[in-house]
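User: I'm preparing a small set of examples for a lab meeting where we compare how different chains pack in three dimensions. I only have the primary sequence for this one, and I'd like the structure in token form so I can line it up with the others. Please keep the answer compact; I'll paste it straight into my notes.
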Amino acid sequence: MIMVPASKLDTLRDFYEQGLGWIPWGPEMPASIMYKVGSALMVFLDRNYLASESGIDVSATPRAIYAVFVNDKRSVDEQMARVEQAGGTITSAVRDRDGGLYSGYFTDPEGNAWEIVWSPVMPVGEDDAITLNIPQES
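Assistant: Understood. Below is the structure token output for the 138-residue chain.
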């Protein structure tokens, strides 16, 4: 589970559900929104609630970049188009990257940073979890 402090849950809910088509996971809670992303669970929690519960200063935007792996390059293009239509900010356009990756980066309305990525070495398995497929040298 990845917990992300959030100031405007309604704005994030609109962005991820209406804009990107994500489906909430678990019961509806007033101070959080949960999404199943592959085999991980992403939870946006009310910033004040999380600070109170954790004792951690969460006043700044988290300094992490979250990556969602997809099955093919077309899925990267489709997801990034949805991000732009939903009002996300593209920070690095989709392109071929080192290691055979194909990806793009964006931020959501609260500045949380994401990468949508296809990898020939880390494909998505049938259970939506990342697998490792390192080519064997002959």
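A couple of notes for your slides: Residues 73-86 form the longest helix (14 residues). Strands lie at 2-6, 32-37, 40-46, 65-69, 89-96, 102-107, 113-118.

User: Perfect, thanks.
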